[in-house]
Design a protein that fits this description.
Metallo-beta-lactamase, Chain A; alpha/beta; binds zinc ion
Length: about 210
């Protein structure tokens, strides 16, 4: 088994961090949150010679899930996550696209499998624990690799900020609880990738994030 590597392709007008998580020796992995610009995502996969085994979704917002069905069909892989509480968002992505004036082939999403707290997802020997972290979206999940001390937190937590909670299904108190009770206890040393902008370390957020004091 090689090391866990993370490749990032910012997609959509929201500059969402579509991520390719892969093993650097086996060159196999998964795509997390293909929000759009599927041609660019496919080119990055091909340029790096990576075999994609599945697509994982953190939550049902358009910038994270808008390209998921197209990529799933192109790669012929299964689509896993988020938590079932985001089913309504996923069923209405085409409506969301029209509201935002997006025309980039956004399609409603039907996952092959929803995820629940305490489950695990994996590729090769890289195992990720699933944490259900509602607040930004009701069915938001976080993927935590305990061995690699790495978490993909989607739009739950950002460097110096937290996810917005003014969208349908948002709940600020639930969001702060998700961060304080589920994410920060994983350890100050855990490195995180988030849905937009630069990631960081949980310890820096615990000490310095103004939303968590
Ligand atoms: Zn979001
Ligand atoms: Zn987002």
């Amino acid at each position: 088994m090689g090391a866990l590597r993370v490749g990032i392709i910012p997609v959509t007008p929201f500059q969402q961090n579509c991520a390719i998580l892969f093993d650097d020796s086996e060159k196999r992995g998964v795509v997390v949150d293909p929000g759009g610009e599927v041609d660019r995502i496919r080119a990055a996969i091909e340029d790096n010679g990576i075999t994609i085994e599945a697509i994982w979704l953190t939550h049902g917002h358009i910038d994270h899930a808008g390209g998921a069905m197209e990529l799933k069909e192109a790669l012929e892989v299964s689509l896993i996550g988020p938590h079932e509480a985001d089913r309504e968002l996923l069923d209405n992505l085409e409506t969301q696209a029209r509201m935002f004036g997006l025309t980039d082939g956004v399609r409603n999403v039907t996952p092959d499998r929803f995820l629940a707290e305490g489950e695990t997802v994996s590729f090769g020997d890289h195992v990720f624990e699933v944490l259900h972290c509602p607040g930004h979206a009701p069915g938001h999940v976080v993927f935590f690799n305990r061995a690699a001390r790495f978490a993909h937190v989607g739009d739950v937590l950002f460097s110096g900020s937290v996810g917005r909670t003014d969208l349908p299904g948002g709940d600020h108190d639930a969001l702060i609880r998700s961060i304080k009770e589920k994410l920060l206890p994983l350890g100050d040393d855990v490195e995180f990738l988030c849905g937009h902008g630069l990631g960081g370390r949980f310890g820096d957020e615990r000490r310095g994030n103004p939303f968590l004091v």
